[in-house]
Amino acid sequence: MVAPPQAKPKPPHMPRLPVPPLRNTLDKYLASLEPLLLESEERGGMSYQSGLSLRKKWVDEFEVGIGKVLQDRLVALDRASPNNWLDDNFWIKKAYLEWRAPLLVNSNWWLAFEDDTMPATALKGETNNNYAGTTFWQLRRAAWLIWRTLEFKDKLDRQELYPDTTMTGLWIRDSTSKMFNIARIPEPFCDTLSTPPETATREARSILVMLHDWCYAVPVYYPPTTPDSRPVVMTPKQIEARLLSLVLDVEDRLARGEKAVPVGILSGDDRDKWASNLDYLLALHPSNRKSHQAMLNSIMALSLDHSTFSITPPHASRPLPPHMVHHRGEAQSALDSHLHMARGNELNISNRFYDKPCTLIVDPSTRAGASGEHSPCDALVPSIVAEYSIVHSVELSEFTDEKAIHPQGVDASEPPWERLNWVADEHIQKECTAARERALKIVKDSDDSVLWFDDYGTDWIKTIGNFSPDAYVQMVLQLAWYKTRGEFTATYETVLTRMFKKGRTETLRTLTRDARDWVLSMVTPGVSNRARLEALRRAIQTHTRLTREAATGQGIDRHLLGLQLLLRPANGESAALFEDELFERSSEWKLSTSGLSAGYFFKGTGFGTLYEDGYGINYLAAPNMIKFGIESKFSNVNTSTEKFKKVVVESLMEMKLLCLEIEDAEPRSAIGHL
């Protein structure tokens, strides 16, 4: 007797993001103000008790007055929302699409990949092709990375990776779906996102490739054989052949003296400026609309840079100091130039379409990276895809002649690429020149560097320090900020709310009263190391608790945002709570931070600081190493990425010595690890 087929497991239920109780949020908000009130008193402002009493008064009035009305509105909005009150109504607009600043550095994230070992060993002595400034191994690695990315995408679609029978699978599948076949569209005052194509059109089966600022659509899937069938992805060898064919076309165009309309640089401009220029272009010629639509619908982008950017370290003739040398002997300047290649530099800033959520970048030396527009999904998502793409080195067996043969039954008659031409006039040419000048100013002012700290990592923090690694790193940054500035600042840490349906992020306010007390104990002479360690424990316990609250939908910043946005000033509604200068100052994130992953396959990561006198810091905490990507502005006298890096190292070593000095003095109570 044949057993009946087993029923497919049902996807787990993902709960809705809750609307936290109003009083809970208000009490947590008051607690978050305590370190700022203490700072104000320390610097001659209102006394701590007077300041706290005033805010308690405003909070109590808010709770029984307009706050109750706003909470009721938010609960009603949640009931009417298909997924959750935040993502369906507010988040993407307020956090991203309403921002008018250029995406370059300010909003887009960037990743620098580890090098592929194959190019260094497989073609010793073989001459590169040097067509249009590209190289053989540049194209090969680009084809391999594209194919691996598409393999990840297809395995997700077939549920061979992260099936939707798990909460993680549901989250990754939903999040990665927003990476592909989509782009941001500039609009006056508030941008929009394109709608992914519903069918496997040629555009939807192509990637956008940019070289020498020209745009091409390159199909990487065969057309589906039936309306219900899935398109078949091409082999790495076939993708490589298409890239080479495209490169030869660019070589021919260069030989004829043609120059591209650098539309990419326009996408890196102020959003209202880009919206105006795009409208002008779309009205100028029909081909511009066709090209833009193809770029929006493309799976993802690939930027083939035709030059390798390098940084000459200061005093290059002198030996590099120890902190400027990578533990494998790689100079700091090489690491940073790789990071800047992914971020954007003066040689490649026009060879990008900044509106795409994922752009792979490969330069002639085979250095690779990625960058992306932030609004559709958070940076952790493309980093997961990127890790899959680079975990395996290029496999030569995938580039043999037989791999160039088309499989039976597919339609192989489509051209290997299509030019996405842009028609411009004198006005647009001037706009491109002006946009490039503004973009150059942005990248030249970006003080962006990576720090590889390899004295210890998460293993030591957990086993010897007995601390949560993330909370520990956050305390490092608090100490480093205070040492370099002599004051405290509101600090943002990203916490994922991935356990909820359509969950994105919540803010963790790292600057707490306990964190402040610990930092002050470290810089105050005469405080015993035992007292310092106990203060560190309290600070980490508090941070760990706040992390759990944020991850489980009980944070405060998204809730306060929702309440504030439901206020109706036109109807005479107001709230002293929201008009308080401290309310605004408590969310001035001059220290904006985010942990990503262990980062085994990344040399560095980055995102721009939110404030001109602040830092944007992304970190990768691995068992034996912590990598920090730090961005600030050269033009600001209060910041220096190089100085901050040195103080981070100093703080990490101080904290290690603090733990070791009294390691055997008394048993330490366990602190929950995240």
UniProtKB/TrEMBL annotation:
InterPro entries with a match to the protein in the record: Carn_acyl_trans, CAT-like_dom_sf, Cho/carn_acyl_trans, Cho/carn_acyl_trans_2
Active site, UniProt feature: H374 (proton acceptor)
Keyword hit for Mitochondrion: no
Stored Gene3D superfamilies: Chloramphenicol acetyltransferase-like domain, Choline/Carnitine o-acyltransferase, domain 2
Molecular function via GO: acyltransferase activity
Keywords: Acyltransferase, Transferase
Top-level taxon: Eukaryota
Region of interest (Disordered), residue spans: 1-20
Domain spans labelled Choline/carnitine acyltransferase: 17-648
Family: Belongs to the carnitine/choline acetyltransferase family.
The protein's name: Choline/carnitine acyltransferase domain-containing protein
